[in-house]
User: What shape does this take?
Amino acid sequence: MRKLTHRSFIKTIAVAALLITGGATAQTQELEQVGRLISDALFFSDQYITPAADAAVYQAASGWISSPKKPELWDVNLAFHVNVFVTPQSDRRFTIYNSDFTFFQLEEGTQASVPTALGNKDQVYLSGELGDSPLRLETPQGMNMEVVAYPYLQGSLGLCYGAELVVKYSPQVNLKKSNYQVYGFGLKHNFSQYFKSLEDKKIHFALLAAWSKEDVSFDFLNVQTDYGSLGINQINGLVDTWQFQVSGSKEFGKWEAMGSFMVSTSDIKYKVTGETGTIEETIPLQQILNERLKSIYKTRINYIGEAAITYNIGNFKVQTILAFGKFINSNVSLQYLFN
Assistant: This one.
């Protein structure tokens, strides 16, 4: 087999990109190699980052309703939250087999257990060949954190007819090997106000509809070749979530106990980001990969329960929340009411 020169390799990638995105089948061996490499990267992307994207839904779901009570008009509630998420063992690793790949193969054995984005630092080597040039890479590490904690701010404004506008925002939080950000808004409406007997017993009910955007990114495949880097060093999971929630609470003096049930639907997308490779001087490889990543976009529907306890100290509140379903997520907040 002839050896690829730098120029011919660039041409091969360019032609392969056109053929792959156009749905045609590459005929030469070099074109097939490039197509298989991209397919393997897509397979690994899905297995690696999807658990983290699923977990992001739970992290964003907690704490939207501080109380289902009817707010007073123009009351402002500001809160500082700390979210604590325990990564489950079942989502920290996955098994790869040589049969899963069309370009890469494990350097040792026929199967290996490797970390997802939520896993540890374990790595194995994969190898392949572009033209006559060997290509070798280490599988990406996970965040290596059994407990993930991050802060965010939340505010609410009392509106007419027992409605309340809620806004949530977190700056980009740097975690080990990853970054996380969430923001969104919601609208809550108290409906126990229509039942005086419930209000007299200090029992409250409310409905919430909310939208949130979660962005979680991880170091990914640092692919180096004799022809330069391919620029797939970072991958993002982008999650758009619509959440519908019903909550009920009972006041006991300074205490308030609340229970909630929520249904969320999340559109999960993936995107290669970060520093581009030297290959970008000739073709937009990241753009090509991101187009191919559309094939693994997915929608998740989650049913989540939530329990909360709040202690009121004048205009201050301290609240703890536990959300549960596929994952367990906890949330602690300090709130202040301006009225």
Notes: The domain at 50-90+139-338 is CATH 2.40.128 (Lipocalin). The chain has one domain: 50-90+139-338. The longest strand covers residues 232-252.
